[in-house]
Structure formats: structure tokens, C-alpha cells
Structures
1.
Amino acid sequence: MHLTRDEEEVLTGERGPGMQRAMELVVALGRIYDADRLIPITSAHLSGVSYKTIGEGGLDFLEEMSKDARVKVHTTLNPAGMDLARWGEMGVEESFAQRQLAIIKAYEKMGVTTNCTCTPYITGNAPKPGEAVAWAESSALSYVNSVLGARTNREGGPGALAAAIIGKTPHYGLHLEENRRPTMVVEAEVLDEITDYSLLGHAVGQRFGAAIPYFKGIRPDCNGLKTMAAAMAASGSVAVFHVEGVTPYSSSQDLKGLERVRFDHQDIKKAKESLTTGKDPDLIAVGCPHLSQMEMKMLASMLDGKRPRSDSPEVWFCTSRTVRTWCPKETAVLERFGKVVCDTCMIVAPIESRHRCTATNSAKACNYLPSLCSQKVVCGSYAELMGRIA
Amino acid sequence: MILNGRGISKGLTEGVVLMLQQPFSFLGGVDPKTGLLSGTSGAEGQDITGKVFAFPWGKGSTVGSYTILQLRKEKRLPAAIINQRAETIVATGAVMAKVPMVDRIDLSLLRNGDRVAVDGERGAVDLQGVKGHRVVTSVLMHQGRVLVLKRSDKVSTCQRMWAGVSGYIEPGEEPLQTAIKEIGEETSITKAKLVRSAATLMVRQQDTIWAIHPFLFESPTDQVTIDWEHTEYKWALPSQMDELALVPGFKRLLGDLGL
């Protein structure tokens, strides 16, 4: 891999130990994937935030890096293990909370925007078409690749942090046009609502793995795309997809000779049934990925004027702190039925200490709740879930 | 003997090899508090602390990078990591925790308990106490059959095993020169024609690593006169090789030559 003189200097430590270590990591990854050079990035998004995941070793590393390393581009953070303001109400232990806050502080010191969300593209970190970026978080990076048309590889948290500090990433994989072309065509029936897009994404990812699907026949809005991207990334490591007439580069794709498959209502129904493993949820959690402003409004209008059911389980509406701030009226309505939880979600928070069975409308969450949070799962649409509440 | 691979994470270190035969996940594969391997690693109970930890490649959750940091926190890090093929998870952890790491090393050349020095910058692994020898092995073909020779008791290695026409490459000699010279000496065949050669093959035998340069020749005759190095010979079909006690690496070498 070719390094410029400037990059060599960073590598030999002339700009300080933090930048040196970041460059070592970027170069190691570049070597592994046979990159020819480094290219500048315009933004980064980092995973590796929850104390539950990165532990003491991770915190030590971040504190060490934060001594002298600063990010060069707009960099945002994935959800943490708790609501950073209301962790007490969530039943999070003091010791966990202190370590979690120390992690956030280290990122903040490095210049990272510490609004912890998996949907940073809604709240200000939205790369433009064709821009190179370094993003972790499988759902967000798929959205950025597919819907926004920027380019990122499937970064891990540390790799994305290193790229943010250097302001560059190795040129390989999904930064190259030829690796972004569709590998199959999915002809899907028109879908009724958001959850169906999530289930479609789950079914496609599960059946075809890390493919690059080209969808025909569907017209998802940005909320449908958000949940579909998340589900496909979780079940099949899909990092880029195209939707005819919807995603920015869909019209220039060549579909000749590609395998074609059909997905209909039956497949969606089957996916929903296969994800449901429980019956009586003691937690209803929506917002995987984090709720958008539009979803907050929709949920609030579904619940407004109604009364909480006496048998309603605990309810979480997971969103980013920014969206919550944008939606004071909706938040007030939703908080009559449950908590509008920020900075975290049902996957990264330690819910297993208080809950056994979780209901959600996200196929991604259904996929991870059993293994990461020891939950039984009920998969339902927004309408079905709100019916259990009001 | 120095093996040259690719540097992934810098640093110079020495240690004793602990090797796994299968891909390894740091998450769940090792207890960061004790450095002991779990059952899923295939070497349960072994301690990686201070070892030169060799395995084909990393697998499993990306959280594995943080497990390596946790090992650092607990002072249970391996001295170095050697992989056949590096991937993101282990490479990331190694760089973050400053563990020297080298990849593109043929693990069949390492043995558990070997003492090695690892240079993560240059990508080199120095096997202390292991000698390297450059040799040629020529396979002669005649009408679809392969010449194999049984090594005598007078040669220094691999006595009574079946082999091709082999010999040490002397200083200043090109491998092909050696091959032609040895064919003349060991078989008295003079007009063999070179068909093809293959990439150098490395084979470990106790404390020796043979760097074998393979050649395939077509012989115009099946008349062979052997010298003191062999006691018998035969023209065998490639499919009959399994019936013979062959020198290490010979089957692989036949495959590399397209037989």
C-alpha cells in the first residue's frame, strides 16, 4: 500500500502516539484487504460504546487514546448501555453507569459528537452521494451506502475511530464501484406497512447472506428503508442494496443475467412467525433503529386521546436525544404510556436483568434479543403493539 | 531459519509457540482473567500468556478485539500472534493492545514448543534451533509413469523412504542446474526435458525445514542406473503412490507439479 510522506510521518509517531496508533490500525487493515492507498473521508460513525460490550479493556484504550488524539471529521456515536440522563429510572446500577459515563467522556474529549444513536443520518451526520466515509453499525452503514449513496466498508468500532482520527480510510471493498453492483434481483409484492419492510429485509438477508439485492415492486419511504436496512444487515450482513426508483444509483445498474427471486405476503408472514418465540411480553420496545420524528408523530397520533390499558406491560420508545427534543408534544403523549428512552435501546441496555419476553416491530431486534439479551420475542406491527398498550 | 510473512502489528518479541489447528475467536475462546483457553479452542486449559500464539485465522464476534484489550488489562496477553491469514477482528485487537503480529506464515512449519523470535514490523518469524536447507526434487515421467527411488542407508536423511531425484543446492548454483546435475548423477539419464517447475515448497521435518524447488522432466527412456544414494527404483503410476513410504511433502509436490 502506498503511503504519502505525510502519512509515513504519522506512522513513525511524529504527530504523537494517539495518531500513530490510529495510523497503525488503518495501515494494518489496508494491508489485510490489499488497499492501494488511503483516501480522505468526510465523516465517521462509531460502535463500541456500551460498557456491556467493550468492558474495562475498551475503556482503558479510549482513555489512553483521548490523551492526545482528536477526530478530524464529523464523528458520531452508536447507542450506549443506558439513557445517559435517566439511567436511574431504568434500573441501571451505579457502578455500570459510572463506567458508561467515563466511556462517553473519553469520546467527547476526542471531539466525537456524543449524541448516542444508531440513526445519526437523521440528526446531522448525513454524508452526501459519492462521499467516502468510515462507518460502523451495520444498519447505519447500510443506510448510508444504499439510501444516501455515500461509500463505506463494514467498519468495526476501533477501525472507524482510527479512520476518524487520521481523516482517512483504506481504499478497498465498497469504496470501489465494481463491488457495489447488485448480485441478485428481488421482486417483492407491494407491502402494507413499516414492519413488513423489516420482515422482508430479514427474509432476504437470511436466505441470501451478504448479497447486494436489487428490489423491484416496493416503494419504501425513509422509515421503511431504515428498518429494512437494519434487518438485512442483522440477518445477512448486507452492507448495500438498491431499490428501483428509490435509491440514488438504482437507475444505472445492469440487471442482465442476475438471479431473480420473488418474495410475497406468504414469505413476510412466515418470517414474522419464525421470529416470534414468546407469548406474554413484559416489555414492549419500539425504536430499533431509533424512532424518527415521523414515527414519533405517527405513534403519538395512534395513542393520543386513549387511556393506558391496566394490563399494559412496560413500554420503551427508543430514540435519539435530538429527535426527542424535536418532538416535545409527542413525547408528552408517549410518556403517558411508557418511557421515551434516549441514547440506548433494548439490545444494548442490560434488559435481561428485569425482563423475560419483549415485543417489538423490528426484525433486527427480534433477531438479536434471544442471543444478546436472553429474551423470548413477540413480533408485531406498530398497530398490534399499540393495541397492547391503549 | 527465518520465515518471511507480512507485518500486521509492530514490535519485536520472543517466546514459545502455542499453536491451534483451527480458527479462533477471542470472544469465548479465552478467559481474559486467566489467559486460559476454553473448550471451543481445541486446546482447553492451555495458557496463552506470554506465548507466541499461532492459529490459522480469527473468527467470531467483533467484540473479540475488546477481549484482547481485556487480556492486556489483566496482564494475560500473548507475546505475539502468528496467523496464516489476518482478518479485522484479531488484527484490530493486536494493534490496539500493541501485540506484535505477523501473517502469511505457513503454520505447518511451526511446532508447539518451538522457540521463536517475531518481528511484527518486517513480518519475520525466526525459528531458533531450526535449520533451513535449499534442495531440488525432480520428478521424471516416462509414458505416464513417475520415477521413484528408494533412499539408501548411506544418505543422511530419510533413509529407506521413496523419493524423487533430490539434492542440495550448492552455493552459487541455480536450482535448475542442480536438478539437471542430480538427474545425471543419480539416474544417468542425460536427455530429460524440462516440462515445468512449481513454486518452492517448504516442509518441516523435526528440526529441519526443507525449501524444495520442484521440477517435472520427461525422460526419453526408462533405463535407469542408480548410484550409492539409492538401493532400488521403480516407474510407478501417480495413483500408486499411497502404497509407498514416501519422503515428507512428496505427495504435495506431485500435486503442485500437476500430477
Note: The two ends of chain A are 59 Å apart (CA to CA).
2.
Amino acid sequence: MKAIFDFIQNQILGMRWLDTLIGNLLGATGLDLGNRWVGSLRFFLFDTIKILILLCVLIFLISYIQSFFPPERAKRTLSRVRGVWANVGAALLGTVTPFCSCSSIPLFIGFTSAGLPIGVTFSFLISSPMVDLGSLLVITGIFGAKIAVLYVICGLIIAVLGGLLIEKLHMERYLEDVIVTTRLAEVAQQKLTAHERLRFAAEAMTDTFKKVFPYVLAGVAIGAVIHNWIPESWVVAVLGSKNPFGVVLATLIGTPMYADIFGTIPVAEALFAKGARLGSVVAFMMSVTTLSLPSMMMLRRAIKPKLLALFITICVVGIIAIGYLFNALQGVI
Amino acid sequence: MSEKEKTILVDENSTCFPSGAMPHYDIKHEEVSAQPERILVLGAGCPKCRALEQTVIKSLDEMNETLAVGHVTDYAEMAKYGVMSTPALVIDGKVVSAGRVLNQKDVVRLLKENL
């Protein structure tokens, strides 16, 4: 059983075979694998191909699953649940509902018109970018299943607690008028056929591929530089055990950046290999994927500055806490 | 706000989230037609919404139709159609697609079915 699991983790999700293959091919051309330029090239080729394969396969699978969970369904399901369970449900649905920050306002209007409390909407809005099926699988491939599962659980906890806090503080008054006054019309939903779901998944795959490709290249290029040129001592000094504020630094750098998990992972992977502590790396990945300037500006149209500031604070503080937790657990897990 | 003002036509060069600064739509009246458009693209002007609008315009060209395409960026107006994910395509008041950037073949099919 363990052998099968290790095989999936290392060879299928981690694609070690590809690294060996690229190493052999580069070696066969007479290049010296110990040379730093060749090392950078190997990292670049391996990571680009690996991430693009993962991206295509995963986005296809994930989008197929997501086609069963349109936001209208989340709205209906959540309007039947009360209390903390509604927040838990919202955090969980946030991981499988296809959602782009461009749609945050219509989604907000939809949830609010269905009578969902503001805290439930925020549990959804925090969990949706922070934890998704993509990050679970990608992190499993790079850091192993335990870390991936813990990452998801921590993200869900922040989403639930953050939503509950916003609820407790009665932040409804900081919603923009458009959210409060607009009612979403009820429209009968069309049922998708299996063929339409496959088409949807294929479309989502090509769309995401086009959108994410430059970020992956940039991420892998930065990763390759870190991997072969940045001295380990620097990384250790800034993000390793020498710096108790590595987690805070990683979170603050990641917060305004806009990229998704596929662009973030090569940088995270290279930093980790160079001695950055696990918590700093996790905090960096989470802050890059969860918060970004464009998504904050989008959200600003739905909520007033005070609530936006609270939302950002919850995410940042939560991510920093998770970072320190992972640091504490590094070596144990 | 009158019905006319709510259908906003956005010029193609407007800045778009997330590549540029925050989009800021002034209500323009330069192309407000007397009759509301039969075909509407719903979306706040993100790249996906513009992509869908372009595909619709190309599809209409392909079909030799001269109908105008309206672009609804007002959220209250979008909510009337029950749309929770953008971009959405509305033909004669009916939402025929939401949350997807359709390809030209699909748009042509939907236009033929619904016009």
C-alpha cells in the first residue's frame, strides 16, 4: 500500500522519471551535469514540462468536477444550512466551485439575495482562492501528501474563522449599496450533459493554459536562478532558521503579487531546496494565491474600505499563523 | 436611472482588470440606440468578457447579421438576468451561457437557435 502511495506521489504527481530522463538526455549530449548552467537548464526543462503536464491534466479533471458545482448550486445548498455549518459548507464549496475574481460581485449579490449571512459569503471568498483542488494536488506532488492535506485543512480553518469573525463584528454595514439593494433574479438552471461537461473542462484547460503559461515560465526561470545561482546561505539567512521573521517577510512579499499555484510552485520548490523553512515557503504560496492587488480592487467595489481592510488582515494574520505552525511541525511531518 | 442609461457600451480600448489599473466606467451615451440590443454580453470588463464580446461580433459577421452587441457592466442590471458568473451571453432577454468564454462555433449555434 505504501509502495503504491509513494509511487503515485513521487512518479505520477512528482514526475521523478522526467527528471531522470532529462538528466540522461542532457548527459547523452556530452554536457557536464555538475555544471551550474547545465543544472539551471535541467531545472528549467524539468519544471516547465512537469508543471505544464500537471496543469493540463489537473485543470481538465478539476474543471470536470467543478462543472457539477456552479455558484448557483453553492447558493442553494448554503441557504439551507444555518450557523457554523454554513461557514464550514461555504469554505468547502469554495474549494470546488469554479470562480474567478471578476465574478466576485455577481456572486456576492447572489449570496446576499439568497439571505446568506455576510460571514458565510466571506468563508467562501477566503477559501476559494486559498485552497482549491489544484493546490492540493500540486503540493502533494512537490511536498508530499501530509503537507498538502495540512495546507488544505489550515486554509479551511482560516476561511471558517474569518467568516465567523466578520459575522460577529456585524460588518454588514460596510457592504456597498449595490450588494445590499440588488436582488438576483431566480432563473431556471440548465442541466449540463456529460458531453457539455467535457467541453467545459477542455475549454477551462486551454483558457487556464494560455493565462498561466507566462507565469509558469517566469516562476520556473526564477526557480532555476534560485536553484543554481543564489547561495544557500542567503536563502537560509532570509527565509531559513536564522531569521525568525522569515514567515512574516514571505507573507508580506506574496500578498500584492498576482499568480496562481502553478506559477508559485517552482519558486517555492527552489526556495525550499535551498534551505528556506517550510513555514516561510507555505506562507509565500498562500499569500500569493489568496490575495493580490487586482482581486482586492475588484472586491473594493462590493465592500467598503473598513471591511476590505479587515478581510486582508484576517488573511495575512491567518497565513502568518499557518507559516509558524508549519515551521513548528517541520521535521515532525 | 433610465433603461437607456443602464445599457452601457464600453469602448474597446478601456483598461481592463487585471492587466491594467482598475477599470472605471463612465456612463457614455455615444452609442445608445433607441431600441435595446437583442444581444448582450454581461460582464464587468475583465479580459474574458471582452473576449466573449469579440467572439460574438465575429460570429455575427460570419452570419452576415448586422445586429448591435450591447455590453452590460452594471451589476444591478446583470442581477436581473440571474447571472452569478460572468461573462454571460443574453439573447432576447434569455441567458444562453454564463461563466464561459464561448468559442465562435458555439456562439454561432446559440445565435442561430435563439435569434
Note: Chain A has 17 helices and no strands.
